[in-house]
Every structure is written in C-alpha cells, then in structure tokens.
C-alpha cells in the first residue's frame, strides 16, 4: 500500500522529468535493469504521463502508479513487460 509520502516523491519525479525505465524481464520473471522508455512528464490522477522523445513527442504513455516498482537517482522503475507497455500508449 502506498502512502502520501510515496505520492509526493512521484510528484517530485514528474516535476523533474525523471527517466521512466522498464525493469521487468518477461523470460525469467525477475526484476532486472531495463530500458529507458521516456521521461515522466506529469502526474494525472493515479497515473504517470510518460513521453518518449524530447523535442518531437513520439510516444505518450499513461501508466498507473501501481506499476511503479521503485524510484531513486531521478529514475522511476516500472514493474511491467515490454509487451504490456503497448496497452498504456495513448
């Protein structure tokens, strides 16, 4: 269960354009170092708005905060597979 401190930290990462990183290995079902999928641009209700591409917004994702595995060092790590990312693209 997330507390209000967690929500404040997510807001901080949104305001500072933290990298959003997928860190779920589909094959081994383990949390691993993953790939950068863009920057956390904003927070909308219980979701994060993640944009891929700095100048030309190539992809935009609306990812539930429940997918946040951990955060630190200006990075937000998401507990999701590459395939499941497509369902959050807007």
Instruction: Give the number of DSSP strands.
Output: 6
Query: What average pLDDT do the residues reach?
Result: 74
Q: What is the CA-CA span between the terminal residues?
A: 27 Å
Unreliable sequence segments: 26-31
Shape descriptor reads: globular
- Residue share in helices? 10-25%
Q: Tell me, what is the CATH class?
A: Mainly Beta
Widest β-sheet, arrangement of strands? 4-3-2-1-6-5
Number of helices: 2
Reported by name, the CATH topology is SH3 type barrels
Radius of gyration: 12 Å
**Which homologous superfamily in CATH is the superfamily?**
PRC-barrel domain
The sequence of SSEs as H and E is HEEEEEEH
Kindly describe this structure.
By secondary structure, this protein is of the alpha+beta class. It has one domain (4-88): SH3 type barrels. The chain is built from 2 helices and 6 strands; from the N terminus they run H-E-E-E-E-E-E-H. It has a 6-stranded mixed β-sheet with strand order 4-3-2-1-6-5. Residues 26-31 have low confidence and may be disordered.
Quick take:
With 90 residues, this protein is an alpha+beta fold. Helices cover 18% and strands 48% of the residues.
């Amino acid at each position: 269960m997330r507390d209000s401190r967690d929500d404040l930290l997510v807001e901080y990462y949104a305001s500072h354009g933290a990298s959003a990183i997928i860190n779920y290995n589909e094959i081994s079902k383990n949390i691993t170092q993953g790939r950068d999928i863009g920057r956390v641009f904003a927070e909308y209700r219980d979701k994060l708005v993640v944009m891929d591409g700095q100048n030309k917004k190539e992809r935009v994702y609306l990812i539930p905060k429940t997918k946040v595995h951990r955060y630190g060092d200006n990075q937000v790590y998401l507990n999701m597979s590459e395939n499941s990312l497509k369902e959050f693209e807007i």
